[in-house]
């Protein structure tokens, strides 16, 4: 830990200076010690910070201490008795609990981070359309897929077997959009020339088609 802290000392020092400059000299300061949930202290000594410091500023400082400034993680802060730091130290902690001669001890809690990673390969494909696919939608139960294409057809697919179930050929132009009903028994599709097709499905069987013109 000590080696990592030393490498971040300069950046942390600049951050503390920027925090003090942003709030002005009139704001009261207090020493702060920041600990992880397993009681590992982030810095070798207490850090003097203004009472008006915000969670966002604490988060920047904490990420620098963790050497994760290039890929910062969201962090929340609480006092040892469970007080969540919301707007600032001053507004979150009762005044009677603030003693400028003692350090305020904060616990930091990294929040879960969800990142979308690019897909680098296709696991399977469903050949069948004669032109580019313009619209797709999964059925409410997740077992079927409907696709609309520039070949003026709507195709239904069984996702378990990855095979076609039905093909709707009533459209006369590109099928631009499709939508399942909440119960999964109907599928509405609309094509470029204004036709709307309502396909009724039951037990994976295409029962009937209804066409309307907008």
UniProtKB/TrEMBL annotation:
Transmembrane segments: none annotated. Keywords: Nucleus, Repeat, WD repeat. Residues 30-92 form the NLE domain. WD repeats lie at residues 126-167, 168-196. It is found in: Nucleus, Nucleolus. Signal peptide: none annotated. One of its GO terms (biological process) is ribosomal large subunit assembly. GO terms for cellular component: nucleolus. This is NLE domain-containing protein. It comes from Wuchereria bancrofti.
């Amino acid at each position: 830990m000590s080696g990592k802290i030393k490498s971040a000392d300069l950046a942390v020092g600049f951050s503390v200076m920027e925090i003090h400059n942003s709030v002005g000299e009139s704001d009261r300061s207090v020493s702060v010690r920041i600990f992880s949930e397993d009681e590992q202290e982030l810095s070798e000594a207490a850090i003097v910070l203004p009472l008006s410091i915000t969670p966002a500023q604490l988060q920047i400082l904490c990420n620098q201490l963790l050497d994760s400034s290039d890929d910062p993680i969201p962090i929340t802060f609480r006092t040892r008795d469970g007080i969540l730091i919301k707007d600032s130290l001053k507004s979150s902690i009762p005044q009677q609990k603030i003693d400028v001669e003692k350090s305020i001890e904060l616990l930091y809690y990294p929040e879960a981070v969800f990142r979308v990673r690019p897909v680098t390969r296709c696991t399977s494909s469903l050949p069948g359309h004669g032109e580019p696919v313009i619209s797709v939608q999964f059925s409410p139960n997740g077992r079927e897929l409907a696709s609309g294409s520039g070949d003026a057809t709507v195709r239904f697919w069984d996702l378990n077997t990855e095979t076609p179930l039905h093909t709707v050929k009533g459209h006369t132009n590109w099928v631009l959009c499709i939508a399942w009903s909440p119960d999964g028994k109907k599928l509405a599709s609309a094509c470029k020339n204004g036709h709307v097709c309502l396909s009724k499905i039951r037990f994976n069987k295409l029962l009937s088609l209804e066409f309307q013109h907008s």
